[in-house]
Amino acid sequence: MSYAEVNGVNLHYTEQGSGEPLVLLHGGLGSTDMVAPLIPALAEHRRVIAVDLQGHGRTADVDRPIRYELLADDVAALIKHLGLGQTDLMGYSFGGSTALRTAIQYPEMVRRLVVVSIPFARSGWYPEILAAMGQMGPGSAEATKPSPLYRTYAAVAPRPEDWPLLHTKMGDLLTQEYDWSSEVAALDTPTLLAFADADSISPAHMVEFWRLLGGGLRDAGWDAADRPAGQLAVLPGTTHYDVLQSPALLPAAIAFLTA
């Protein structure tokens, strides 16, 4: 385990494997432990750097809001700190939105991008998910204390008593309106979009995301000359909450990253 001081945040990260770098980002309220089962297979092909984002896991919170744009600054600063050069990014949910913002804000630093179960705009979440996001705060912190997420947090966080603060800051983040459609449409980074077939994001939004990246606009041609640079994967038999366990996710991601 290692730490890097970037933008006033003491970011915790782990490294495994060798070769081209891949930064791996966890979901909300999680940590590197959430994506740890993915690392051995990915590390057969890459130098995998898994990061605990602000206020999550072993990275202590700091006196600033949690915002995707700021988290992207942290990821870019870590890439520079480690001297990784152009880097692949893979993120799930909260970490996927951070990875996407990193590619948008620092396109020269990102070679390929894999984002799992994220919308490009807040409106992409189902209404019941938006309602649940609006309920995050001290009350949800107390209600989730019996969960594995809290047990992991309590075991590794520098200040376990910050659990209610994390819920409050995440609740504030998740009620912020955003629409990154124009920035996504301008993105040149080859991108794999991966979703569960029973995700928290509507299928119509998934398809629109794909179209913004240049996918689904025309027949690719018999020689695939018009195939888009990115890819779309809808993983069967999964939800937003277990998509990382899909047996189809890693083969799709590895094939895309090593293309």
Which descriptors would you attach to this protein?
single chain, 259 residues, alpha/beta, Rossmann fold, 8-stranded mixed beta sheet, 11 helices, 8 strands, globular
Helix content, binned percent: 25-40%
Described by strand count, sense and barrel closure, the largest sheet is: 8 strands, mixed
The radius of gyration over CA amounts to 17 Å
CATH superfamily: Alpha/Beta hydrolase fold, catalytic domain
- Globular, elongated, flat, extended or rod-shaped: what is the shape? globular
Sheet/helix structural class: alpha/beta
CATH topology: Rossmann fold
Q: Oligomerization state of this entry?
A: single chain
Mean pLDDT rating: 96
The domain tally reads 1
Q: Which second-level CATH architecture applies?
A: 3-Layer(aba) Sandwich
Number of helices: 11
Number of strands: 8
User: What is the chain-wise order of helices and strands?
Assistant: EEEHHEHEHEHHHHHEHEH
* CATH top-level class: Alpha Beta
Kindly report how far apart the N and C termini lie: 30 Å
Kindly estimate the percentage of residues that lie in beta strands according to DSSP: 15-25%
Question: Which regions are unreliable across 5 or more consecutive residues at pLDDT < 50?
Answer: none
Order of strands, main sheet, comes to 1-2-4-3-5-6-7-8
